[in-house]
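forwarding from the other thread:

> can someone predict this with nicotinamide-adenine-dinucleotide?

sure thing
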Amino acid sequence: MTEITAFPAERTAVLTGAASERGIGRATADLLASQGWNVAVLDIDGDAAARAAQDIAGRHGVQALGLRTDVSDQDSVNESVARVEAELPPIVALVNLAGISSPTEFMQETREAWDRVFAINMTGTFMVTQRVLAGMIERKVGRVVSASSISAQRGGGTYSKVAYSASKAAIIGFTRAVAREMGQHGITVNCIAPGPVDTDIMGGTLSDERKADMAKDILVGRVGTVRDMAALLAFLVGEDAGFITAATYDINGGLQIS
Ligand code: NAD
């Protein structure tokens, strides 16, 4: 039987793709910091990551590190995770949110653009997860949550066509397979499948008209907020979520049945 290892009092959550002020990751980093987590923001936008960390540390009195990281580059991933391990308390949670959309119609898709989407959305998630898991396995405790998408189930939307949908479906298989191996080490591995949330990945701020149009198919009558996503992510990386693994959480206001 696997023993339950308590979370250390001083612990760190690593969040990739969490630099954008309007993004899901930033809202999640904020919420986790308000719950006492130290946070590391790893993002391709290094200046925004540094600003986010400074702001979070100032407002919540926790340690925060913002590091330019390209999740599609193994050296960059290794360097950033090594710095987090050296400078912050033990990593207990990893939230993989770095991602790009692919608004291209299938017959216009190029091999280069396809590879780029997979390199960031899927291979990036693989590389960061593998690097962070090494320490979690040693400490016998950890939570990993990655971003799939409702696009994996429905085949995309305006800003998320074939490459994006396929990469987000891959995240579900990845999550289940890694969860299979990690349970024995006290580590849970899950993913979330959000419906539309008004962030930069949607191609810029959504107009009220566009949001209202999208909301017609959503049972609760609105698009999602970053706070909706942060609340679920914070629950899934929390100490009480130890019996949840290999799961894909739909969070889309009911869009999945419309
Ligand atoms: P966002 O654009 O704010 O977040 C994506 C972040 O990834 C950005 O901060 C960006 O700088 C970063 N990034 C891009 N390439 C990177 C790279 N190579 N290395 C490191 N960081 C990189 O959008 P968001 O909505 O907060 O997206 C977060 C995650 O949620 C994404 O994986 C997205 O696919 C997923 N998601 C979003 C929605 C939605 O409607 N917003 C729906 C389903 C899933």
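Residues 118 and 167 are 6 Å apart (CA to CA). thats all i got for now
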